[in-house]
Design goal:
heterodimer, A: 9 helices, B: 201 residues, alpha+beta, 7 helices
């Protein structure tokens, strides 16, 4: 790692992975401390259960321990680890009984406009718990995409690598997720206003 | 400003908001933002969503996750172990190890003699030990006292079956049903345990 390294955070993580490949427990502990809060938050948003989220986080880093020697550095370490977490997460979700999902397209549009005043009104009225509520109602893929971009602040290419799809798919997916989120928030705000 | 340009800018707005766009894309969107009040309003909304999402997402907490992870990992062979927090060994380390090894040898002889005596009172307190139990290789911290080591092994229901080896490793057997909790307990006591690994069967 040098001062000129364009991504010193990844360079440090790469060095830890190289040490983990040599069965260095201290390096594993360091990587766990560096990445587990992000992985935990990512998983928790999808699972909604802190205990399960912790198990998936531990499972994920355990996979890193087992496969560190196979990591070639083609992707960022964070992307690789998030990809593992996503696989673990999907395994968990498959084991759950299928839950009824709400089709957000059926949600009545109370403020159908896409113009500036609609966004300004929404920005003034919405609250964190409403955003959290509406995020829960998105499809898993949409929710994951919103979280990776708005919570983890990941670039487009990294989200595409984690979601294993082309960048254009991610752009379109997030566009639809935003539209659904907006509709849900408008509906929620109106419901709260009626109470 | 064409409709197509505006649509492409809308698609990229989230990455404009999170600050990860390339400089070229950022400049292109800056120009469109300057010309479009709708685009500016949408960006402002996305920024509030981003802020509220960050506020509403619980921060990850460790809650023993690291201990559980370290308790779960298998280290392949004694020679390859790179343990947790290996402190620099003091200069008196080798003589102290030699003395400790001598004491263990003396204890082993004494225990061996006792075991061979036909004394019916000498029985394991918890019944016969399961020969299929899990074997753990443990290296204790150099500064760990005998009382700390004994207390830890008693706490996990461990039986010392061999050691210390040439590299200072002790082999401890624990009942299969207690293996998981034993590993977690060893991982949690970094003040006493320098490293440990499950011995593959």
């Amino acid at each position: 790692m040098s001062l000129d390294d364009p991504n010193p955070e990844n360079a440090r993580a790469l060095a830890l992975v190289a040490r983990i490949a040599r069965h260095d427990q201290q390096a594993l502990a360091e990587l766990y401390r560096a990445l587990s809060p992000q992985v935990h938050a990512f998983v928790l948003r999808q699972l909604g259960n802190p205990d399960e989220a912790r198990e998936v986080t531990v499972d994920t880093l355990h996979e890193v321990w087992k496969h560190a020697a196979e990591f070639r550095g083609d992707a960022l370490v964070r992307t690789w680890v998030f990809g593992i977490a996503r696989h673990k997460l999907l395994d968990r979700l498959r084991q759950r009984p299928r839950m009824r999902t709400v089709d957000l397209d059926e949600v009545r549009e109370t403020l159908p406009s896409e113009d500036a005043s609609a966004f300004e009104l929404l920005a003034r009225q919405q609250r964190s718990e409403q955003v959290a509520h509406c995020l829960e109602r998105l499809s898993p893929e949409h929710r994951e995409c919103v979280q990776l971009v708005f919570f983890h602040d990941l670039p487009l290419a990294e989200v595409a690598a984690i979601q294993q799809c082309p960048a254009n798919t991610v752009k379109t997916r997030l566009f639809h997720a935003r539209r659904n989120l907006k509709r849900c928030l408008e509906h929620r705000i109106q419901e709260d206003g009626d109470d | 400003m064409t409709e197509a340009e505006l649509h492409e800018a809308r698609l990229l707005l989230p990455w404009y908001a999170n600050g990860t766009l390339s400089l070229e894309d950022r400049r292109r969107i800056d120009a469109l933002l300057a010309a479009s009040p709708d685009l500016r309003a949408e960006l402002a909304w996305l920024e509030t969503v981003r802020g509220e999402l960050k506020r509403s997402t619980e921060a990850g907490t460790d809650d023993g996750g690291l201990g559980e992870l370290l308790g779960r990992i298998d280290v392949p062979a004694e020679g390859n172990v790179v343990p947790i927090a290996r402190p620099a060994r003091p200069r008196w380390h080798m003589p102290a190890l030699a003395i400790a090894a001598s004491l263990v040898l003396v204890q082993a002889v004494v225990i061996g003699v006792l075991v061979q005596q036909p004394d019916e009172t000498l029985r394991p307190l918890s019944g016969p030990v399961d020969p299929r139990g899990v074997l753990l290789q443990v290296r204790f911290q150099p500064q760990a006292t005998e009382a700390e080591m004994r207390g830890l092994l008693t706490g996990i229901g461990g039986e010392l079956v061999a050691g210390p080896g040439a590299l200072g490793l002790y082999t401890v057997r624990v009942d299969t049903t207690r293996a998981q909790s034993a590993r977690a307990a060893l991982a949690a006591r970094v003040d006493v345990v320098e490293s440990f690994a499950v011995v593959p069967r």
